[in-house]
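Hi support team,

I'm filing this because I wasn't sure whether my run with NAP finished correctly. The job status page said complete, but I'd like someone to confirm that the output block is well-formed before I use it downstream. Pasting the exact inputs I used:
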Amino acid sequence: MIIDGHTRTCGLLGNPVEHTLSPVIHNTLAEKFSHNLVYVPFLVEEGQALAAIKGAYDLHILGLNVTVPFKSAVLPGLVEMDPMAEQIGAVNTLVRTEGGFRGYNTDMPGLYRAMAGEGIKLAGEEVILLGAGGAARAVAFLCAAKGVSRVYLLNRSLEKANAVAEEVNEKSGRKLVAPMALSDYPSLPDRKYLAIQATSVGLFPHTDHAVIEEEAFYDKIHTGYDLIYKPSETKFMKLVRKHGGKAYHGLKMLLYQGIIAYELWNEVAVPEETAQEVYGILREKAGI
Ligand code: NAP
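And here is everything the job wrote out:
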């Protein structure tokens, strides 16, 4: 592309940012749409997130993604919040509006679009959610928004599981989330579940671990969705498949959270065919 006086800039705020795949998504989309837009990573020091978004606005940056550790830290610097992001209490996408940035969480609609593309439905499902960190918390809100009938939230720290359950149940106005310790899985009602793996266990380079190692757990799963995409087959996924279930990694979630952000910044709809082309390039870059 030719960078000139009309080039618009988007970017990623985070720390670290060196390994991000987001520039692949956005610069490929800009090329496909012939948009005069460039997407770059911005390394921000801890404590500087608010200064960074103020500076970005003053520099006329069109849009930003926000990643670890700033997804909640930037909230006081926003002029508006999308209702879903407000509920979750974390944003990953900032859109330039009159007077400042509006915050969105495209991770969750991204996960939803990725799951829908694989034929995985949430409405009416009973879900096992592994983890109670930032990602799991957001997934619990997604489950509430999409009509999941029950979420069994299993986490190493029961205290954190309790806190997420209490918050989601209160905000959704129903007793949706049941918190449990990981070791309590044998007491789950005897049926098959959709399991969403939202812990960091199994992430490269610690690929020979799963958050629950006991094989009996995997007899309870008809579909396993791991938010991790490196490696492309986690131990969790291997165990799900070994016990007859279908298993997916999280690269399509990454793809669609990026696509939804790009759509918001540029007010376009990305056709599915284009999304698949970007996915091909993303897979190549991710080595999957
Ligand atoms: P986080 O806030 O740090 O939460 C980590 C979670 O993992 C907590 O539930 C923690 O349990 C659990 N955990 C960590 N080590 C454990 C261990 N040794 N044994 C049992 N549980 C352990 O992280 P996050 O931001 O939620 O991210 C979670 C995962 O999702 C990461 O792997 C991340 O790469 C992935 N992710 C993927 C995408 C995507 O686009 N595909 C987007 C967001 C996140 P405790 O509460 O007990 O500490």
